[in-house]
Amino acid sequence: MSAKSNTSKVVRDGVSLAYHEAGAGDRSPILFVHGFGCSGNHLRLQQQHFAASTRTVAVDLRGHGASDAPLQEYDPIGFADDLRWLCDCLGLERPIVVGHSMGGNIALKLAVRAPEFVKAIVMIDTFVDGDSSFVQGLRELSDNLAAIGGSSQLFETLSAMLFLPSDDPDVRKDVLEQCARTPWHVLKSAFAAHLLRGSSVADLQQLTIPAAYIGADGLPTEIWRVEAINPRVSTGKTVGVGHFSPLLAPDQVNAMLGTFVDRVERIRGFRLRRNSRPPPGAGIHAPR
To answer: Does residue 99 lie within any of the structural domains?
Structure first.
């Protein structure tokens, strides 16, 4: 039986931020961060899975879902600062941060800015680096956002890149309808900030905490690019689905997340034992 998620809001400097909480346990808490134009609901299948054994929180980023959308700039640093504030507010200590798409860029930014605050991160099909022709295409799209006209039209334009022809049409429909509800001023600001003015390559190079990357078919950040930037990042890939793998292939995603989380917990357990006082003559050994 899946744990029930409770939706609540907290207010930061007059801005209401929504989050969805479920589960409890002694393992490291998990913070789920959705992608561009989405909401915490898009990671519900991962939250339901892991809430059976630990505390989980899925956020609606500022400007998305049930959170307020003030007229302002929307960029990874601002989103990361919101996450740190929210974790402090909720008493979420050293979470494992799982980010899909833009959520992975935000998790990475948080980990680099405050590595002592985050236990580990997972990036799910996050755009980190791509070939020059793809980046040029993004720049041309960004330059023509005014002509596109709105949230629904933008995601229809992006849909061929986000979905494979074989992806579940009901999932595609639901995702596009949700993203179309995200305010246009939020999308225009966040699009350029995280895809064109971001620093994810430099951030990934500087990353010092445990990290994993789960790729998918269709987008240009192939696994080999991530491994070349930082060979310490664990990598994997879903099979047969496009960008929205958390909804299209939850069993694959949850299995890879589970393997990584278990490894992080073993490291955590070893450090706790190492920092305790063993009886005379006792030895503490790292797990193999």
So the answer is: yes
